[in-house]
Structure formats: structure tokens, C-alpha cells
Amino acid sequence: MEILDTLNQTLLNKNIDTENECLLDLNVYKNIASTYSQIENYISVLSDMQSNKSYVFKSKAALELGLQLEQNPVEIHSIWEEEILSKIHPDDKLKKYIHELRFFKLMDSINPEERTGFNVLSRIRMKDKNEEYRFIQHRMFYVYSPYNGKLRFALCLYNIALEQSLNFPAEFLIVNSTKGKVIAEDKLNYKNILSQRELEVLKYVGEGFTSREIADYLSISINTVSRHRQNILEKLKVKNSIEAFKEISAK
């Protein structure tokens, strides 16, 4: 998936030598993630950008979403919690990834002393144990290293949203919790730019499908898919799909 490749290149701390590594205590932050899970019933995911690992702490709410509790926490050799991500609605997953790029760019641009006041607050659709979509509240926090200034941990929290009405759509916000203000709202409204079919093609491109796979899934020719992809690039004024994601994430 192209957007994931872009995020990996952006988030992961590659080529960190022993003189420049972050010395923050991993166990301290694992305890924080565990506490959220135990006290507030969140599914907590602590991702370590230095080691490219994640630790997933599951609460009883995980059972409502059809997630297993065989191990707790589960250690993953990736910063992406695929068991959870696979349940997110494809439209919301693409927006979630793009929103994370926006959040990283914002955090990278502000004074390090002010970063602790910002977090992501999202309302996304995720399949539950009955394979039906329910709204989930997602929160994300970044922890930067005081040793090398790089992003070290991302803490993602998931729980079932209280408001399940379809009158309230999925949303993606960046908030300043210190001041109680919304800093950035979801501006990924492609409907003002792209046709319905182009929106469908963009969704599957973002999910990593090839043109042939998209053609088969939508029952159209591969030439038609290619034409739609070209129209998307022209309308968004970019050269390729990666640039399209970068362009959208910067808005």
C-alpha cells in the first residue's frame, strides 16, 4: 500500500546508531498503555518507532469487536496493528492514514515543548464481532525523545463510541487538549473534486489494489481504471498516487 510506505518512511527511526538512540524506558510507556486498557476499557496500542514493534493491550471491549484475548499484551513486529486495522472501513482507513501524516507534519513544525498538548481524535467505523460496522472513538498521542528529538512512541486508543447515530459521520480531528480547541478538521472531502467512480477507484488505490484487481472488483475494463486514475491525478494536480496522498495530507 503506497500510503503505508510513505508513513513508514516518515515515522520509523531508521539508521539510529548507539550514540543517537532514544533511552526512554519502554516499560514506563507499556504501563501507561496497560493502565488505559484496565481503567478505561480501551484497546491500547503502543508503537515503538525505534524498534519497529507494537504492544497491543486488549480490554473486554475487544471481545465486542471480535478480537481475541489469548495474549495480553500481544507483541507485533511492526508499528501497524493489522488485526485492528483490518476491521476499519476502507474509506475511514485511508483517511486515518492521511490524517496521521497531517498530524506528524503539524507536530514536526511546532516547538517541542508544546507537543504534549496535541493529539488526534477520530470517529471511525469498524466491524464488530457480528461483522457489522460500529463507530469507534480513536485517540492518538505522540511521544518524542528528549535524547535525539525524534518520534519514539505512538499511543493509539480504541473504544466503542457512545454515539452510534449515522447522522454523525466519521470525523478526523487534531485537538489541543491544553486549550480545549480543535486545531484541524477533516478536509479530505473528495466529493467536491472527484466523481463517484473516481472516489471508488481512489479508495482501492489507497488500499493497495492493482489496476487489474480494481477492474475486476468494479466490473470495468482495466483501460477504464487507468483513465480514472489519470483523471484523479489531473484533478488533484499531482504526478502519482504518492503525491496525491501527500497533497491531501497537507491540506
Structure explained in plain terms:
This protein has helices spanning 2-11, 26-40, 61-64, 82-85, 90-109, 196-206, 211-218, 222-236, 241-249, and strands at residues 43-48, 53-57, 74-76, 118-127, 133-144, 151-160, 171-176, 181-184. It is α+β, with helices and mostly antiparallel strands and 251 residues long. A hairpin with a 4-residue loop joins strand 7 (171-176) and strand 8 (181-184). Helix content is 38%, strand content 22%. An 8-stranded antiparallel sheet has the order 3-2-1-6-5-4-7-8, with helices on both faces. The protein has 9 helices and 8 strands.
Mean pLDDT: 85
What's the tally of helices?
9
Q: Which band does the percent of strand residues land in?
A: 15-25%
Low-confidence stretches: none
Looking across the biggest beta sheet, what order are the strands in?
Answer: 3-2-1-6-5-4-7-8
In short:
With 251 residues, the protein is α+β, with helices and mostly antiparallel strands. The protein contains nine helices and eight strands.
Output the keywords.
globular, eight-stranded antiparallel β-sheet, alpha+beta, 251 residues
Summarize the helices and strands and which ones pair or pack.
Elements: H1 2-11, H2 26-40, E1 43-48, E2 53-57, H3 61-64, E3 74-76, H4 82-85, H5 90-109, E4 118-127, E5 133-144, E6 151-160, E7 171-176, E8 181-184, H6 196-206, H7 211-218, H8 222-236, H9 241-249
Antiparallel strand pairs: 1-2, 1-6, 2-3, 4-5, 4-7, 5-6, 7-8
Helix pairs in contact: 1-5, 5-9, 6-8, 7-8
